[in-house]
Amino acid sequence: MIGAPTVEAIRAAMALPDFDAVAAQELMAPQPRPLRRSPSTPGQPRLASTLILLYPGEEGLSLVLTRRAEHPHDVHSGQISLPGGSQEPGETPLQTALREANEEVGFADDAEILGTLTPIYIPPSDFRVVPVVVYAAAHPAWTIDPVEVAAVIECPVTDLLDDRLKVVEDWDLRGYRMRVPWYNIQGNRVWGATAIILSELEQRLRAALEVPHAVSRQAGD
């Protein structure tokens, strides 16, 4: 049984030298799926940020996820995601992530900035997303915006390290057959960009804590 990681472990994980972030992301990325934007794609990607908000939870250090509200023209409608959104002119990635977290789940408390993870590319919406990691010393009081958020999901960080909560399935996505790994977080499928981002955090923690890498299981195993 893996003990609950502490914020000190997160700090150490964020500061690892020579960490292979791309390899960490690929562990929970649908295949085939590009993690970077092709140089031949015209124009520039849209910029966005997400917030990995860590805080004390009932089972140790936790992070907040949201179930997106249903919207008919949103390709990510109803999915599980981190708080975040589009970067506004003049904003830094940190400012964007904090603003979006305030708008979506009401987080406006002081937080320790722990750093950023490796940006990822989201092909369906042409976004380049910077994940920002922060720590709040007290459990936040959630106030959700029902237009954007259907529910808040509090995820113990230990869930990311639990091999039993990883599944791999074959899905038909937008006309393509894809191999999709996902985290089973309280019965919710956490996949795609959110799983890729969390996979880097997970693998950084595994390296910092010297916990062996997980092996994803096939559905039904």
Flag low-confidence runs: none
> Beta-strand percentage?
25-35%
CA radius of gyration: 17 Å
Kindly state the percentage of residues in helix.
10-25%
Structural category? alpha+beta
Q: Distance N terminus to C terminus?
A: 20 Å
Q: What characteristic shape results from the CA principal axes?
A: globular
Largest sheet geometry: 8 strands, mixed
Count all strands and give the number: 12
Summed up, the helix count is 5
Oligomer: single chain
Average pLDDT: 91
Q: H/E element string? A: HHEEEEHEEEEHEEEHE
What does this structure look like?
- Strand 9 (166-173) and strand 10 form a beta hairpin.
- The protein contains 5 helices and 12 strands.
- Helix 1 (7-14) packs across helix 5 (192-209).
- The mean pLDDT is 91.
- It is globular, with a radius of gyration of 17 Å.
- The chain is 22% helix and 33% strand.
- The chain has helices spanning 7-14, 21-26, 93-105, 157-160, 192-209, and strands at residues 46-57, 60-68, 80-81, 84-86, 112-116, 120-122, 127-135, 149-156, 166-173, 176-185, 188-190, 217-218.
- It is of the alpha+beta class.
